[in-house]
Design a protein that fits this description.
Elements: H1 7-16, E1 31-36, E2 41-46, H2 52-63, E3 70-71, E4 74-76, E5 80-83, E6 113-116, E7 129-132, E8 145-151, H3 153-157, E9 170-176
Antiparallel strand pairs: 1-2, 1-9, 2-8, 3-9, 4-5, 5-7, 6-7, 6-8
């Protein structure tokens, strides 16, 4: 999509949030870059304004390289791609960090929204997360939203499907943008 905006139009579009995230300025301290086994990148704008504890834990785990080599273990066509189990790789594990208290908001689970996976206990989120392929309004207010895809949804769309996928794609590296040299 191309935008032809004058300076006034550009300022108005950014102020109103009508430009796609990729066209907006990203804060390197609050942006994750995931390189996948499909050799493409997913850039996630983290939302500490919505879930400060979740964002802090995700960044801590990324900086510890916890997510490197972790598979997308549950990928449901038309719903979401789940990953983040650096312990077992199959959705049954978590990190050595403590579980997090829920930080639920009214943020809508639309395509590209990134939320924390959890058990039936709302305060059990730890390291696993999911990226929405499509609208999932039924999740609104029940799961913590901590980010949104700024670029690379085409990469998310290519992740091997299945529960688990026969040949799962992996997050080869996950880095906080500020730390990338």
């Amino acid at each position: 999509m191309r935008f032809k905006l004058g300076l006034v139009g550009l300022i108005a579009a950014v102020a109103l949030g009508s430009l796609p995230l990729a066209a907006q300025e990203l804060d390197p301290e609050n942006t994750l870059v995931i390189k996948t086994s499909d050799k493409c990148d997913i850039t996630i704008k983290l939302r500490p304004d919505l879930a400060p504890k979740h964002v802090a834990q995700i960044k801590k785990l990324a900086r510890a390289k916890y997510y490197d080599g972790v598979p997308f273990h549950r990928v449901i066509e038309g719903f979401m791609a789940q990953t983040g189990d650096g312990q077992n790789g199959d959705g049954t594990g978590g990190s050595n960090e403590p579980n997090l208290p829920a930080e639920f908001t009214n943020t809508h689970f639309a395509r590209g929204v990134v939320g924390m996976a959890r058990t039936s206990d709302p305060n059990s989120a730890n390291s696993q997360f999911f990226i929405m392929f499509a609208d999932g309004g039924f999740l609104d207010g029940q799961y913590t939203v901590f980010g949104e895809v700024a670029s690379g949804m085409d990469c998310v769309d290519k992740v091997a499907k299945g529960e688990p996928p026969a040949k799962p794609d992996k997050m080869v590296t996950v880095r906080v943008m500020k730390d990338i040299k």
